[in-house]
Design goal:
The chain folds into 2 domains: about 210 residues, Rossmann fold, CATH 3.40.50.150; about 80 residues, Orthogonal Bundle (DNA polymerase, domain 1), CATH 1.10.150.170. It is built from 16 helices and 7 strands. It starts with a helix and ends with a helix. The longest helix is centred in the last third of the chain and has 15 residues. It is α/β, with parallel strands linked by helices. A 7-stranded mixed beta sheet has the order 3-2-1-4-5-7-6, sandwiched between helices. Helix 4 links the parallel strand 2 and strand 3. Helices cover about 45% and strands about 15% of the residues. Helix 8 packs across helix 9 and helix 8 crosses helix 12. The protein binds S-adenosylmethionine (SAM). S-adenosylmethionine binds next to helix 3.
Length: about 325
């Protein structure tokens, strides 16, 4: 069977995110993370002939499979796939003449399909080349990092992107091993990490290499930097009442989204003791649902990946409308 039809990814918080986006049939929507086109198909299905969908993915194989799926929706709406990092969303939209959109969705990280393809090297559970690039034309693989960076740099990656308690211990084990033989396979790395862990850590439910793999994947794909770029420009490119919905899968991502939404809602930097605001910074709008939405037990039982997902949404409201409220 061709990869297009093999693409298996169950969209997380599907109904909830489409509802949160508050889709207008004639609106213009951006899906930053097309993946298997699950959410994108749902958006497209809600648009009429004047609606438009722009979807980003930097993985060529995902784009191919998703394109076939979007075709099958048979929508009258216009749709387009952009092969670019969503970090460049504002520039990429400007290049095609778009300055404002009605909604943005980002379902972060990798798809189940990417994780399941051993040859893409994302998984500690299957042996494959130590790659982890979403964009296969990107210059740096996970093997490049573990084979070339200093122990201190590797430890910083594991600590900052994996919140790995044993970061230095693992980094030293990596450096010792590469002096004998460079890393090439996921299984090699998973085994070195496992052996570097103290006995008590091996008793944890999760695989000992889980945090190391997460950290390397985030570093290889500049995942947090892309999210920061999106958060930096989103309020500028959303129309009045336009919404941004972001699904995160770990606390590092969620913290960035939570803090950005909080500052968009309350950007004032004046000391609390000031009787009136003099900084002049105006809120961009309001958060929709303060704590975000998590998957219910039914979804978690059907799709384990949804266990760590959290959906947050923010609606831009014009300054004029806010003062009239
Ligand atoms: C979790 S999947 C999205 C699944 C999709 N929502 C669905 O329902 O099928 C994330 C996808 O976004 C892509 N991706 C992640 N970060 C990206 C970035 N910064 N720029 C472009 N694509 C990215 C990945 O290659 C992957 O295909």
């Amino acid at each position: 069977m061709s990869k297009d039809y093999d693409f298996k990814h169950v969209s997380v918080l599907y109904e909830e995110s489409l509802e949160m986006l508050n889709i207008r049939p004639d609106g213009l929507y951006v899906d930053c993370t097309l993946g298997g086109a699950g959410h994108s198909s749902g958006i497209l299905g809600r648009l009429d002939a004047s609606g438009r969908l722009i979807a980003f993915d930097k993985d060529a194989e995902a784009r191919n499979a998703a394109s076939a799926r979007l075709e099958s929706v048979n929508s009258q709406a216009n749709w387009q796939i952009i092969s670019r990092d969503f970090a460049d969303i504002e520039v990429a939209l400007n290049e095609i003449g778009i300055t404002a959109v009605d909604g943005i969705l980002a379902d972060l990280g990798v798809s189940s399909w990417q994780l399941d393809q051993a040859e893409r090297g994302f998984s500690y559970g299957q042996d494959g080349p130590l790659d982890m690039r979403m964009d296969q034309s990107a210059p740096v693989t996970a093997a490049d990092i573990v084979n070339n960076e200093s122990a201190e740099e590797i430890a910083a990656i594991l600590r900052n992107y994996g919140e790995e308690r044993y970061a230095m211990r693992i980094a030293n084990a990596i450096v010792r091993r590469r002096e004998v033989q460079a890393f090439a396979r996921t299984e090699d790395l998973a085994e070195v990490v496992r052996k570097a862990m103290p006995a008590k850590a091996l008793k944890e439910k999760q695989h000992p290499a889980r945090r190391t793999f997460q950290a390397l994947r985030i570093s290889v794909n500049h995942e947090l930097a892309a999210l920061e770029s999106l958060l930096e420009c989103a309020p500028r490119i959303l129309k009045n009442h336009g919404r941004i919905c972001i699904i995160t899968f770990h606390s590092l991502e969620d913290r960035l989204v939570k803090e950005a939404f909080r500052s968009w809602e309350n950007p004032c930097t004046c000391p609390r003791s000031f009787p009136v605001c003099i900084c002049g910074k105006k809120p961009y709008g309001r958060q929709v649902g303060r704590k975000g939405i998590v998957a219910n037990d039914e979804e978690i039982s059907l799709n384990a990946r949804s266990r760590s997902a959290r959906l947050r949404c923010f609606e831009v409201i014009s300054e004029e409308e806010q003062t009239n409220e």
